[in-house]
Amino acid sequence: MSDAKYFQRGKIQELRAELNSDKRDPKHTKKKTVMKKIVANMTMGNDMSPLFPDIINVMNVPILEIKKMVYLYLINYARSKPDMAMMAITMFIKDVEDPNPLIRALAIRTMGYIQVEKIIDCLIDPLSHCLRDQDPYVRKTAAICVAKLYMYDRGLVESERLIEKLRDLLNDPNPTVVANAVAALTEISERSDDIQLSLNLSVASKLVTALNECSEWGQTYILEALMYYVPQDSGNAELLAERITPRLQHANSAVVLTSVKVIVYLMNYMEKEEDISNLCRKLSPPLVTLLSAEPEVQYVALRNILLVIQKRPEVLKNDMKVFFCKYNDPIYVKMAKLEIMFCLANAGNVDQVLSELKEYAAEVDVDFVRKAVRSIGRLAVKIESAAQRCIAALIELIETKVNYVVQEAIVVIKDIFRKYPNQYESIIGTLCENLDNLDEPEAKAAMIWIIGQYADRIENADVLLDDFLYTFLEEPVEVQLALLTATVKLFIKRPTAGQDLVPKVLKWATEEVDNPDLRDRGYVYWRLLSTDPAAAKAVVLSEKPQISTETDNMEPALLDELLLHVSSLASIYHKSPTTFISNYKPRYLMPSPVLQRSRSSQFESNLPIPQTTEVQEQKEATAANRLSFNGNGYDFSGFQTGNPYATEVVNRPEIRQSQVTGGADLLLDL
Amino acid sequence: MISAFFIYNQKGEVLISRLYRHDLKRSVADIFRIQVISNTDVRTPIITLGSTSFFHVRHENLYIVAVTKWNANAALVFEFCNRVINIGKAYFGKFDEEAVKNNFVVIYELLDEILDFGYPQNSETDTLKLYITTEVVKSERAVEDSSKITIQATGATSWRRSDIKYRKNEAFIDVIESVNLLISNTGTVLRADVSGQILMRAYLSGTPECKFGLNDKLLLDKDAVMKSNPLRRPNAVEIDDCQFHQCVKLVHPVVNEIGRTRVEYKINIKANFSPKLYAHNVVLKIPTPLNSAKVEVKVGAGGKAKYAPAENCIIWKIPRFQGQSEFSLSGEAELSAMTHKKAWSRPPISMDFQVLMFTSSGLLVRFLKVFEKSGYQSVKWVRYMTKAGTYQIRF
Question: Looking at the complex, does the CB of residue B232 fall below 8 Å from at least one CB of chain A?
């Protein structure tokens, strides 16, 4: 076929004439051609809505290909012409009764997309029938259609008891129907204020059985839903995880990563360390295998690996080498690998890591090189035994005189000096050779800090500072603050060297600058120096707290939250989904007698634990009130209503609602 | 889940546009064009603006783009984009701008079928081809046929019809391994691993269960079981504990940058596998500095080498390379003076090759059994091939 020719702007008038042409067209080939032109124009973004009445006439042409194009047209324009859309109803009503299951499903599917009140009204009845259709293909289409309808009108779905019918489909003999019903229920519960999905053991177990029979996508939907099963018993958690592990071997990375998510989630409810470490061992190989997938999938995997290894350091601890960057890896893969390499580095493998990082520091991509240099410095802070070699590597890099490399190195050397005071000062001389090239605030501030800190050893510290002070008023605040403090340090350590500089800087800081922080700090120093020099010395040269790379680690509560979102966008950005998606229900580990209160809970241990029984009662009461599931002779498949968060939110004021930001700017710079 | 799906050409023109949810308008297509296609420095396959996220995959001269406003499963979205590409290739032979434009109506039909309200549905090409065809007029079909299709599309073995018959029952197993190797400039092996695929092409009647056994420790007690499949089924078998027996080839490069004007190359290559086997299509790409003015290369007995200025490298091709043999190349690049110094990042030497009937991991298929109700005889074949994955040598 060569339909490319239809990709040119068509005039409404001409198209209308062609649609209504009286010419003989026994096989409807002319109609088909004009429909193709219209669809091509729709694709290009040209407004085809004026043709609506003419299209309605075409609906009766008994050719499936044309029908599908007409439906596509309706999906695109019905909302802008609701009155016209009415005219299509007879056609739809005829189609949902069609003996051919493909046609029935097509009609239901299309009607669900056309969110126009009159059409939706006509959809309710046939939809209820289709949910019980004898053909599984129709049932699975109808299941998704309930979710469509829910987005359009929640009240309608509830009043028509469609959710109950959807829930019945969980017992469907066909696995694809079950999977689609699960997907629809999951989405409805994630968007609803009062419906909460929660699976009991028997439903969860039934779903796991259905897993083996499902398509890859269906497996993903079911695995996602299993996140709503809260184990009440450690053994059950272990057993369920064990039954899911074969999914780790699947060729589809979505199945693999979603399985990882469920298994890591279930680990929170396991008591035996042995079970956990057994499972951890099983997680490593499939994660490594994902690294030979397409680069985009690798990226998703890498970002998630970084989360998993922070929570479960056993995973991948011996697999450092697979994270070495290949020359032709895309930049986003390289950056993600670098972070994992740093995280996995330990005294045993640090030499390998270091020689890799040196290699990367010689590449061309500026961001990548910077990150490599910075990682070398962080390694020195993280692993004491390697500090000497890391510093040697940094000095080597500084000697290349590549501007951004030098600046990045100086920033991390400052941290090394903080961590290991009085050990590596011999390199200060080398650093001072590069002062003229510093043009980034962070590097400048770091260098100035070093000069101030070692003012007593750097003979010409006053000259160096004076050079920096020359542009004091033009500098960004962080550099000004560093200059102010460094000058005061110099004065305290070597009064004669600093006596000319200090008054100048204090005067600038307090009189010429608008920034309140800088001004306040200026006044504080001034008063200290003028009233009690001894106190000034004690304050300015006070003992500094130890630094460590531990502070780089993710906050445990956030880590736990993100692990509930493995494989999702949130896991890639390492940001709670509530920060970039509006009206997103926050998720956290649900309480259970076997929930292991690990690091994260120590962190939150001062918070009262919500009283489970009360929540349970409340949930059940609401469930009984709203949908009366128990009374209808259904087996209780665990779909409950009521908002279990209600009590918890009150008890846990720190839930990060306050952090909701615009998101756009934050996320773009990743 | 996925709210919209677009295909663009390189110029940013929309070739396919399908909205699945009303939380987006078609105008989001323009945002992607501005933010990604017109941007020369795209550093991530996902961008999020506000709460709208764009996932993209590039293929040939196309951008395949999925848009969501939800905290979507990213792996699923990318798998879906790649699946669309594979379905496109299966339907049209090639999936590029021309193919998309020429078949846009079929692509819309497919998209309506494989993605419902943003949820990927059955996407097995074999099943789809039963009811979405590129041939003209075939739309009216018997109801019984349709029921058969729907059963298959929703069944446990959605990729295979149950009533397939072959006169001669044959099964072919291909074991294809890719060797990934990274050697540092001092000659130490930084990374050496093999990732393999076992592909089975089955011409077997009915839906038999096939079992095959490997010589691998892990799986010996638990043979991999998979249902037979007429087409490629990339069911990756995990054999991570398998040790890498021997490095297939060792390359010893000596590259000296002599001052600012000359670079000398001396590269030896030796095949470490059995002399009974041959490697085919061995290609080495040896990067040269960006400012090379003139490059001369000499090779001994093995193959041909020439300088490809467009790719900034020397390409050394050895069509047939016997095991245990050794070749060498020497060369010299003269560099022109450059107005502004730009560091040469010294990309690694990369290498491509194929060795038939050899698996670098030592993996062997021990047996293949076919179990079918009628108990027919079948003929089975096994082929092995090792090829280069990412095979890089730093110098």
Answer: no
CB < 8 Å from B in window 129-158 of A:
135-138, 140-141, 144-145, 147-148, 151-152
Q: Is residue A261 within 8 Å of residue A223, measured between CB atoms?
A: yes
Q: Chain A residues with CB inside 8 Å of B131's CB?
A: 102
- In this predicted model, what pLDDT tens digit does every residue of A72-130 receive, in sequence order? 999 999 888 888 888 888 889 999 999 999 999 999 999 999 988 888 988 999 999 99
Minimal CA–CA distance to A241: which of A263, A209, A219? A263
Q: Is A288 on the interface with B (CB under 8 A)?
A: yes
**Which residue does chain B place closest to A401, by CA atoms?**
B343
Residue B66 Rama label (left phi>0; alpha psi -120 to 50; beta) = beta
Q: Is residue B278 scored above 90 in pLDDT? A: no
Distance CA B144, CA A625 (A): 45
Considering only CB atoms, A135 lies closest to which of B15, B147, B182, namely B147
**pLDDT tens digits, A584-633:** 999 989 999 999 875 444 444 444 444 333 334 344 434 333 332 333 33
Inter-chain residue contact A584 with B102, CB threshold 8 Å: no
The Cα B287–Cα B185 span in angstroms is: 14
Interatomic CA distance for residues B28 and B13, integer angstroms: 13
Search chain A and give the residue with CA nearest B29. A45
Interface test with B, best of A149, A300, A337, A575 (most B CBs within 10 A): A300
Euclidean distance between CA atoms A40 and B105, whole angstroms: 9
Non-local (6+) Cβ contacts of B297 within 8 A are B265, B305, B306, B307, B314, B316, B329, B330, B331, B332
Shortest CA gap B265–chain A (Å): 20
Cβ of A258 and B105 within 8 Å?
Answer: no
Give me the interface pTM, i.e. the ipTM.
Answer: 0.87
Q: Cβ–Cβ contacts within 10 Å for residue A511, how many?
A: 9
SS3 per residue for A308-325: HHHHCCCCCCCCHHHHCC
Q: What residues in B contact A580, CB-CB < 8 Å? A: 48, 50-51
Cβ-based contacts of A135 with chain B (< 8 Å): 147, 150
Per-residue model confidence as pLDDT tens digits over A222-265:
999 999 999 999 999 999 999 999 889 888 999 999 999 999 99
A286 → closest Cβ in B98, B149, B238:
B238
Alpha helices in A515-568 (DSSP H): 516-531, 533-540, 556-563
Other C-beta atoms lying within 10 Å of the C-beta of residue A514: 7
Planar angle of CA A308, A310, A313, nearest 5 degrees:
85
Q: What is the DSSP string of A576-596?
A: -GGGTSTTPPP--PPP-TT--
pLDDT digits (tens, 9 = 90+) for A407-466: 999 999 999 998 998 888 888 888 888 888 888 999 999 999 999 999 988 889 999 999
Radius of gyration from C-alpha coordinates of chain A:
33
